[in-house]
Every structure is written in C-alpha cells, then in structure tokens.
Design goal:
By secondary structure, the chain is α/β, with parallel strands linked by helices. The protein is 36% helix and 15% strand. β3, α1 (47-54) and β4 form a beta-alpha-beta unit. The radius of gyration is 18 Å and the shape is globular.
Length: 310
C-alpha cells in the first residue's frame, strides 16, 4: 500500500489548522485528486485508494475535516471550531486545492467526496469549481429534501444551547440489516472492513457529530442538491456517481442518487452513474471494491486524456 508522507497542517481562515495527508506517485505527476472523507471517519482510511491513484501518476491529498481525525484535537470531536459553521469546510477544501495547485501547477485537478464528503465536495464545486477537471461522488446523499425537516429541528436545538451535544446521526442506517453482527454492517458486506472501522479509535461512536455540526452539513446537503445550486457548477464539468444499491444513505434503490444524476444531466453536464447491486455504503471498501476502483480509474484516465484542465 502507498503510504503518505508526514502529516501536514493546512492554513485556514481561522485558528483551526486541519491536518492533511499527501500521497505522491513515484514519477511524473499527471494530475491531482483531493479526497473528502465522510462523517465519523478520517483521511487515513483512504490509503488503499490513494495507492491505486498514485499508481496512475496522480498526487492525492486528503484532510481530516473539522471535527474529525487528527483535526478534532483542535476543534473537538464533531465540531467546526469556535465560531465556525459548515461554510468553513468549503473554505478548507479550497485551501487544500490551492496547496495541490501550487505544488503541481498546470495539471488536471479532480475532487472526490464520499458520503458526507460528497455533500462538501458538491457544494465546494458549486462555489469555486472553475478549474476542476472532474467531480466524483461515492456513497452520495443525493437529492434529499426530506432532510429539511431534520435541519429545522437540529437548528432549533442548536439555538437552544444543545449545539455541542453528541448526536447518533448514523444509527438508523443499520436498521435494514438487522439482526446484524455489528452496528455498522450497513457500511460493507466485507466483515473485515466493518471490523476495521469498529476498531478504529477515530471512527464511529468515538467520533460522533454534534447537533450543531449535523445541522450545518444536513443544511448544506439540502441546499447543494437543488436545481438552483447545480446551476452554479462549471459548464461541461464531468461528474461520476458511485453508489451501492443497498446503501441506506442514497435512498431506497439508490433513488436519491438517481435523482441527483437527473439534476446534473438537466444542467447539461456529462454524468456517469454506477450503481452496484447488493453493495452497501463504502463502495471502495466493499467486496467488489476492485470493480469500483477500476471504474473510478477508467473515468479518471478519460479526464487526464483531454478533459477540462486547470
């Protein structure tokens, strides 16, 4: 497996300096990929995927988002940082994008978001995606207007002073798989991958979102997957959507992901949608992960071979 070099600190717009990892190919850098991880996990879980990307000449960057991983040592678990809100996540994505651009100028740039990271990546591309060569979303939330009601409740709780209260934001996802071996069987059909997640001290119940954090990212999910928000994406931006058909995050039969694909196509963007039968949430850690990674690499090669540049 490719290993990252030393952990780095990212300059941000406030006192939080998110930790990030960088995986570099052995030879010429053909492009860069920024990975945005999901809720209650961290960037260190993407080493295997980074190895597949660096083998194709791509430099890979991934930070521990605010409230997660090593960055949580500064912010606290599941928190944005003093006075910060969800918009700070987008600013951090832009800042790491700038680092990649400075270290490898003139090459294509790809943005890959998983799960909660798909929310952040989509919103970041809408806000400042002009030099992206492609946007890939795995395990995406998709179009989820039903979350608006949850946002209202969470915002009211936050306003009442409960913003820093830890929240079980993931527990309901396991219900379709009960009786289950673990509370996280919804992540993958591969027991070893589920066990690795459970054993990781920076994952799951030990790194919960707070009420205020969930209010912020769920609100971002609702706002970013609308016709008005999608209109802000750059013309011609290629988008790849990767989802498990049994992923509870993407709706029944991946319906929310299909709805997002429809929105993107209506915007006139070239969209590739891959839905994997029987696969669950973490498609890069699923039993068919080689197939999923292969689909990502095929799409990536097409972007390096003459797609949008930045």
């Amino acid at each position: 497996m490719t290993t990252p070099d030393d952990l780095h600190r990212l300059d941000s717009t406030d006192s939080v300096r998110p930790v990030y990892r960088r995986w570099s190919p052995g030879g010429e850098v053909r492009g860069t990929v920024q990975i945005v991880h999901g809720a209650s996990e961290h960037s260190g879980r993407y080493g295997r995927l980074a190895g597949a990307l660096t083998a194709r000449g791509l430099a890979v960057y991934a930070m521990d988002l605010r409230g997660h991983g090593r960055t949580a040592e500064t912010t606290g678990a599941g928190r944005f940082g003093d006075g910060a809100e969800a918009e700070a996540l987008l600013a951090d994505v832009r800042a790491l994008h700038a680092v990649a651009a400075a270290e490898h100028p003139g090459v294509p740039r790809l943005l890959l978001g998983h799960s909660m990271g798909s929310i952040v990546a989509l919103a970041a591309a809408e806000q400042a995606g002009g030099d992206l060569t492609g946007l890939a979303l795995s395990g995406p939330v998709g179009v989820a207007p039903h979350l608006a009601e949850s946002v209202t409740v969470l915002e009211a709780s936050t306003a009442a002073g409960a913003g820093d209260v830890p929240l079980d934001a993931l527990g309901a996802f396991n219900q379709p798989f009960e009786p289950a071996r673990t509370p996280f069987d919804w992540l993958s059909r591969d027991p070893a991958e589920v066990d690795a997640y459970v054993a990781d001290p920076l994952c799951g119940d030990r790194m919960p979102l707070t009420t205020g954090y969930a209010a912020g990212v769920f609100g971002l999910a609702v706002r970013s997957a609308t016709e008005e928000a999608i209109a802000a994406l750059p013309d011609g931006l290629p988008v790849l959507l990767l989802a498990g058909r049994r992923d509870p995050v993407g709706g029944v039969d991946a319906g929310q992901v299909v709805a997002l694909a429809d929105l993107l196509r209506a915007r006139g963007l070239p969209v590739e949608l891959r839905i994997y039968d029987d696969a669950r949430h973490e498609v890069f850690n699923e039993t068919n992960r080689d197939e999923v990674t292969g689909d990502l690499l095929t799409w990536t090669e097409a972007r390096l071979g003459g797609g949008r540049g930045g």
